[in-house]
């Protein structure tokens, strides 16, 4: 991770006069929050400094209050307002590279990782990954040679982690929690004691009828190397937060893509960027693999996709299905993702072909 541009920080470590320490009450590293706002929003920092004795405390408490009303990912993406002053908490990668100022700010996001973090007086987590001082991912790491596997990590989250601990709160804590050893990875977005549900975050092993669970063997590295070589790349982490993760209000938890979902959408986006409309594609998944969310994520990405010349590729995205139940599931999934008014139009049983025509002629994207 250090090779990938992450800062490795320790408790009580000093940097630029700021002391890094994990704040258990808000699941943040205040030093990185201050550093991020100071360096990317100098005028904003000055206005806050002129008005408040401790601007970081105000930022942290305001962000926490907004997360309780909405959710963490939404607040990170849209920032907060303090007494008429807007504070950005992260910078997403722009859909095109035409605006150099936005691209420069995007590069100023601070990624850091802290190990052996006491998230409460009785709970210690192996790794916590932060974005601009806000906790994003937690990890429990095991090594089978020492007699433990990812299953022991899963049991730790289920038996030894309290959902009342701030970092495990579904709205204000870390977005996802990973249990992994050197062979396999599992994840959850909702800590609920023994009822906690973990899903595999593996690549799969084998192809065709021989396909199976787990990860393919690797001669030169751990089979889970894709986590630090691919998933945890800074661009991919920001892509996950900006374009994939959303909060399901009914289930009261974050929806985080499984490996095959993220990999499939990412590969298709890169293929379309290269081939534009020259090729057709078929996505084939088994039952229960999350096709509905995958279609929703892909639709959003395609709706704003630009080519190499920074021109938008598609005017409209049309989602068709041949089953009523799946149609309703798709509507719910697509509408759950954040969007501006008029971006999406649901063509239900009351609509006619004339309604579809008007939607296609207008500015409706999906």
What would your notes on this structure say?
The structure is a single chain. The protein is α+β, with helices and mostly antiparallel strands and 366 residues long. Helix content is 36%, strand content 16%. It has twelve helices and 15 strands. The protein has a seven-stranded mixed β-sheet with strand order 1-8-9-10-11-12-13. A two-stranded antiparallel sheet has the order 2-3. Strands 4-5 form a two-stranded antiparallel ribbon. A hairpin with a 2-residue loop joins strand 6 and strand 7. Helix 10 crosses helix 11. The chain is globular and about 60 Å long. The mean pLDDT is 91.
Helix and strand layout, with pairings?
Elements (H helix, E strand, L loop, with lengths): L6 E3 L3 E3 L2 E3 L1 E2 L4 E2 H11 L1 H10 L3 H15 L2 H7 L1 E3 L2 E3 L12 H7 L4 E8 L5 E8 L2 E8 L8 H11 L15 E5 L4 E4 L10 E2 L24 H7 L2 H11 L1 E3 L4 E3 L3 H17 L15 H13 L20 H13 L16 H9 L5
Parallel strand pairs: 1-8, 10-11
Antiparallel strand pairs: 2-3, 4-5, 6-7, 8-9, 9-10, 11-12, 12-13, 14-15
Question: Would you kindly provide a brief summary of this structure?
Answer:
The protein has helices at residues 30-40, 42-51, 55-69, 72-78, 100-106, 150-160, 225-231, 234-244, 259-275, 291-303, 324-336, 353-361, and strands at 7-9, 13-15, 18-20, 22-23, 28-29, 80-82, 85-87, 111-118, 124-131, 134-141, 176-180, 185-188, 199-200, 246-248, 253-255. The chain has 366 residues and is α+β, with helices and mostly antiparallel strands. It is globular, with a radius of gyration of 22 Å.
